[in-house]
Write a structure and sequence with these properties.
Layout (H helix, E strand, L loop, with lengths): L2 E2 L7 E4 L2 E12 L5 E9 L5 E7 L4 E4 L2 E10 L4 E5 L5 E4 L1 H4 L11 E7 L2 E5 L4 E9 L12 E6 L4 E5 L7 E5 L4 E5 L2
Antiparallel strand pairs: 1-6, 2-3, 2-6, 3-4, 4-5, 7-8, 7-10, 8-9, 10-11, 12-13, 12-15, 13-14, 15-16
C-alpha cells in the first residue's frame, strides 16, 4: 500500500476501506504552525463530495487503478450497466458514481472503467464527447437580444444550449466537465 505526503489532483485515495477521487487540493499556510492541505474528494461508492483538511506532510494512501474496456449497455433507476469485453459478463455501477457523465454515454459505445483489486472505482471520463443532435428547433428570426442560442437534444437525451446555426443531424463537441457546447464536429 503506497503512501505519499503530497497528494495531487486526479489521484485516487483509499481511506478506511473507501475509495476517493481527489478533485482538487489547495495549500494553506499558517505561519509557524506549517501548512495545511485542503482536499476536495469524491467518494466513489456514492458520489458524495467531501472536503478534508490534513497537515502538510501527512501521509495518505493512494492507489493506482487498472483500466478495463467495457461496452455501455443501458441504465435504469438502480444503476448503469456495462458488458466486460473479455468475459462478456454484465457489470453494474451505481448511478451516483457516474454522476452527470451518464448524459454522454451512447448505447453500444466502448469506454474504460477504472478498477483496483476487483473493485470498480469509476468510469474514465473523456474531457469532450461528440454527439449527434436529434432534436433542434428552427432559429427564430430576431431572437438575438441576448447570446443567440437555442435548446437542442442530443442522441443520449441530454439537452443543452447551442448556437442558432446548429441543426438536427449535426454532430457537436460537448465539454463533459461543464456540460456545454464547444464546437461543431467535422
Amino acid at each position: 500500500m503506497p503512501l505519499t505526503d503530497s497528494p495531487v489532483k486526479g489521484m485516487y485515495l483509499r481511506e478506511e476501506g473507501r475509495f476517493f477521487f481527489l478533485q482538487d487540493r489547495r495549500l494553506k499556510t499558517q505561519g509557524r504552525q506549517g501548512g495545511l492541505v485542503i482536499m476536495r474528494m469524491k467518494a466513489l461508492d456514492n458520489g458524495q463530495i467531501l472536503n478534508k483538511t490534513i497537515k502538510s506532510g501527512t501521509k495518505v494512501e493512494y492507489v493506482t487503478p487498472e483500466t478495463k474496456e467495457v461496452q455501455y449497455l443501458y441504465n435504469d433507476a438502480s444503476g448503469v450497466y456495462f458488458m466486460d469485453m473479455e468475459t462478456y459478463e454484465s457489470i453494474s455501477i451505481p448511478k451516483d458514481v457516474i454522476g452527470e457523465y451518464i448524459n454522454y454515454l451512447k448505447e453500444g459505445e466502448s469506454i474504460l472503467i477504472l478498477t483496483y483489486e476487483g473493485n470498480i472505482l469509476s468510469v474514465k471520463e473523456n474531457p469532450t464527447v461528440v454527439l449527434e443532435v436529434t432534436e433542434a428547433d428552427d432559429a427564430v428570426k430576431g431572437n438575438t437580444a441576448n447570446s443567440a442560442t437555442k435548446l437542442v437534444t442530443v442522441e443520449t437525451g441530454y439537452k443543452l444550449h447551442v448556437p442558432l446555426f446548429i441543426k438536427r443531424g449535426d454532430k457537436i463537441k460537448i465539454n463533459t466537465e461543464s456540460g456545454t457546447y464547444t464546437s461543431k464536429a467535422n
